[in-house]
Design brief:
The complex is a heterodimer of chains A (554) and B (216). Chain A has 554 residues and is mainly α. Chain A has helices at 2-6, 16-21, 67-76, 101-119, 123-132, 137-154, 162-169, 204-214, 232-239, 243-258, 282-288, 317-330, 400-432, 435-446, 455-478, 485-507, 513-518, 520-546, and strands at 96-100, 174-182, 189-195, 201-203, 263-265, 273-277, 294-296, 302-304, 341-343, 350-352, 359-361, 368-370. Among the domains of chain A are: 3-71 and 316-340 and 401-546, Four Helix Bundle (Hemerythrin (Met), subunit A); 101-158; 163-241, Herpes Virus-1, CATH 3.30.40. In chain A, α13 (400-432) runs antiparallel to α15, α15 runs parallel beside α18 (520-546) and α16 packs antiparallel against α18. Chain B folds into 2 domains: 3-149, Roll (Ubiquitin Conjugating Enzyme), CATH 3.10.110.10; 163-215. The chains are: A mainly alpha (554), B alpha+beta (216). The structure holds zinc ion (ZN) (7 copies). Chain A: Residues 63-93 are annotated as: Disordered.
């Protein structure tokens, strides 16, 4: 432990004692001033939002009001800085595609077209059969060759006594208008009914009621009186146009759920994308090497294919799950951590954090302090924000109870830093939200081409990836053996990335288009550096996991 | 309101068909959501001679949602909870269709008494009994019918019957363990948990298992 202290730049401001004095209150956000560097004028932010539980993926979604306007930005945003792999590992990226339910439906229709000449029954009937077989062509064909007739009857496409159909009752499927008809379901006199070849006739109101509930279930809908299937055109006829779409949608939903080895919904709130992994067996190799299985959907949401969380390298899924479980358990005691306003340690005025910068200057007394540890800013010096390593006190021979207390405090420290980085990441996103406007401002006022302006969104993306990696690195650090040398190297890497991220974050707060253009090279360099540091940290984290230095017990 | 119309019509249909031997009536004339139905135990089964009373709740969405049914009469049957009377039957769940009526549902319950589905049990203990020893099961089911499924509620009462007999357990087995100092009730509970109805006294493994259960 003493080596840590003697390390020149690790002037750890975190002390257990200091920590004890920390207020455990959850501050309600309500003040204005925020600060940071000397170079950049500080700006005021009026609208405050409080951040709640940090572990719901929905929370990670930012407002997407500008999405449509900025769509072209998104599609080409990977042009400027190409990456071999999302997390810098040597493994090839997972092979996958991002689809929507509509894409999948179109493919299903193609398959139906494909099968039509083989089965030579109406395409609509094939659609029904495919639905019945969970869209598995193979199983359908297998059954078809063995017992086509049985299959058609079982699926409600053919009646047992098909011969009766044309011959005796000569009933044609469809809506009927009747003078007076007492519906056996509702027992009311009705004039509009729906009748099928089986002769079962019920009022359309009852059919509507009946079908409405079943549309979300994705199964074949049959006649209310027997197993004869309603086709999509029947459903649309009864329910009004395009209702069968809903049924197809829910059918595809259940398809995705049943094939969850290869198909996953994007976990982001309201995102309708589906990721289709081509080769699910490749996941095992990724897991074995503690590499991250990240995929990006059409709406540019990145998440882990296995656990559904956001990109969490250098942590692997088991670290994430242990960490999240622990955080949920402890969160009630730790509510205060989530506060994103703090009292000035000197004059107690509430100060809100703006952007990801941890260098706070009180709007009232001008006291400068560190957001993470609350300590005076001066000892943090030029090495910027180095509150990245937990420093335990050296006193040996304490009782078990003290050890437990210390373990909790150690966890609390990591949890707190973790959350600080999460909040910072969100604030950075907020700042970056008007990125489209900024690029347009550059185009208009400075005459920059669209492509040239791409360094802005690109650097924002890199910044966010850096912050996310940094954030999860604290989960890795928590589960790592603190006495091991590699853990210390990991902490050094955290510090380097932390500094790089804060550096870039400061640059990101420049508003003036001309200044932004003038410092374009700086953007490039700092973003490139953040990217390198991010990959280095991930690599180091993987080593910790592979060597078993980082272990989750539960 | 079509639900009311439909229920009234269903009641009439039941009355018009006395041969079916099914009764259906409101618990309270002002409440169309709560009915009681009853039917006779199918002949040739341990339920023969019994009258089985079923509690029926009709949901708002009826007939598009199934009615909630449970036995008021205690029934010893693999698909009916011997404690709550809850029923495990597909047409009352996913296989419901709006064309099914309360009457046809009651007839299905009658058919269920006729042919149990022990592989989809509601009451695991009873189902086990059914699968392991049909003869003993039939005796117990018939005893329950005699005790509980009698007309106009003049029940013999559970207290007058030996608990062991009620669950088809050989009274000698219970006595054996009672003589070893265990309480009768506890012995019966343990035997029920283990699904043991009779015992070969030389089967030491089973005897040990029972003692172990009793000492828990
Ligand atoms: Zn600032
Ligand atoms: Zn109707
Ligand atoms: Zn029909
Ligand atoms: Zn998405
Ligand atoms: Zn994961
Ligand atoms: Zn102050
Ligand atoms: Zn600090």
């Amino acid at each position: 432990m003493s080596e840590v202290e003697s390390d020149s730049y690790l002037s750890l401001v975190y002390e257990d004692e200091l920590y004890d004095n920390e207020s455990m209150e959850l501050y309600e956000s309500q003040t204005t001033a925020v600060h940071c560097t000397d170079e950049i004028p500080c700006h005021k932010f009026e609208s405050l939002q409080s951040y709640e539980s940090e572990f719901d993926i929905e929370d990670l979604q930012f407002d997407e009001e500008d999405e449509s306007e900025d769509e072209p930005l998104r599609e080409q945003s990977t042009h400027t800085l190409d990456k071999p792999s999302l997390d810098g590992s040597n493994l090839p990226n997972l092979r996958y595609e991002s689809l929507t339910t509509d894409d999948i439906f179109q493919r299903m229709l193609q398959r139906v077209d494909h099968l039509q000449p083989v089965l030579s029954i109406p395409a609509e009937d094939i659609l029904l059969l495919m639905q019945r077989f969970d869209w598995s062509e193979e199983r359908l064909l297998e059954d078809w060759t063995e017992k086509a007739d049985e299959l058609l009857i079982g699926s409600g496409l053919k009646r047992v006594h098909e011969a009766d159909k044309e011959g005796e009752n000569g009933l044609v499927r469809g809506i009927k208008h009747r003078e007076s008809f007492t519906c056996p379901i509702c027992c009311e006199d009705k004039t509009e009914t729906f009748v099928m070849e089986c002769g079962h006739e019920y009022c359309t109101d009852c059919y509507k009621h009946y079908i409405k509930d079943l549309l979300n279930q994705g199964n074949i809908i049959t006649c209310m009186g027997c197993s004869l299937a309603l086709k999509n055109e029947d459903i649309d006829l009864i329910m009004g146009s395009a209702s069968s779409h809903k049924l197809m949608d829910s059918s595809i939903r259940s398809f995705v759920t049943k094939h969850n080895r290869n198909y996953k919904w994007c976990p982001y709130a309201d995102c309708k994308c589906i990721i289709h992994l081509f080769d699910a067996s490749s996941l095992e190799e990724y897991t074995r090497l503690h590499c991250s299985k990240f995929v990006t959907c059409k709406s540019n949401h990145s998440f882990c294919f296995t656990c559904g969380y956001e990109m969490h390298a250098p942590a692997d899924c088991s670290v994430v799950s242990a960490w999240v479980k622990k955080a949920k358990k402890e969160s009630e005691n730790l509510n205060w951590v989530l506060a994103h306003t703090k009292e000035c340690p000197k004059c107690s005025v509430n100060i809100e954090k703006n952007g990801g910068c941890n260098h706070m200057v009180c709007s009232s007394c001008k006291y400068e302090f560190c957001w993470i540890c609350g300590g005076e800013w001066a000892p943090h010096g030029n090495s910027y924000y180095q509150c990245t390593v937990y420093k335990s006190d050296d006193d040996k021979g304490k009782s078990d109870k003290d050890d437990l207390r210390k373990t909790l405090k150690r966890y609390t420290f990591y949890y707190r830093v973790f959350n600080e980085h999460e909040v910072s990441a969100k604030l950075d996103w907020k700042l970056g939200q008007n990125i489209g406007h900024k690029v347009r401002a550059l185009q208009e006022s400075v005459g920059v081409s669209w492509i040239e302006g791409q360094f802005l969104p690109e650097s924002l993306k890199i910044l966010n990836e850096g912050r996310t990696a940094l954030k999860w690195s604290f989960a890795v650090a928590f589960y790592s053996d603190p006495s091991h040398n590699l853990t210390k190297i990991f902490a050094d890497n955290q510090l380097l990335l932390s500094n790089a991220v804060e550096d870039l974050s400061q640059l990101r707060q420049i508003q003036d288009p001309e200044t932004i253009m003038q410092r374009k090279t700086e953007f490039y360099n700092k973003a490139g550096y953040v990217e390198n540091r991010t990959h280095a940290l991930m690599e180091c984290g993987r080593d910790l996991l592979r060597k078993g230095i980082c272990k989750t017990k539960d | 309101m079509s639900r009311a119309k439909r229920i009234m019509k269903e009641l009439l249909a039941v009355k018009d068909d006395p041969a079916a031997n099914i009764k259906l009536e409101f618990v309270n004339e002002s409440d169309i959501e709560h009915l009681k139905g009853s039917f006779q135990g199918p002949p040739g089964t341990p339920y023969e001679g019994g009258i089985f009373l079923v509690d029926i709740e009709v949901p708002m969405e009826y007939p598009f949602k199934p009615p909630k049914m449970k036995f008021d009469t205690k029934v010893y049957h693999p698909n009916i909870s011997s404690v709550t009377g809850a029923i495990c039957l597909d047409i009352l769940k996913n296989a419901w269709s709006p064309v099914i009526t309360l009457k046809s549902a009651l007839i299905s319950l009658q058919a269920l008494l006729q042919s149990p589905e022990p592989n989809d049990p509601q009451d695991a203990e009873v189902a086990q009994h059914y699968l392991r020893d049909r003869e003993s099961f039939n005796k117990t089911a018939a005893l329950w019918t005699k005790l509980y499924a009698v007309a106009n509620g003049s029940t013999v009462g559970q207290k007058q019957v030996d608990e062991a007999q009620l669950y088809g357990i050989d009274p000698n087995v219970v006595e054996e363990f009672e003589s070893q100092g265990f309480e009768k009730e506890k012995v019966i509970d343990a035997l029920r948990r283990l699904g043991i109805k009779s015992l070969d006294p030389t089967d030491n493994a089973t005897v040990n298992k029972i003692v172990e259960e009793l000492l828990k």
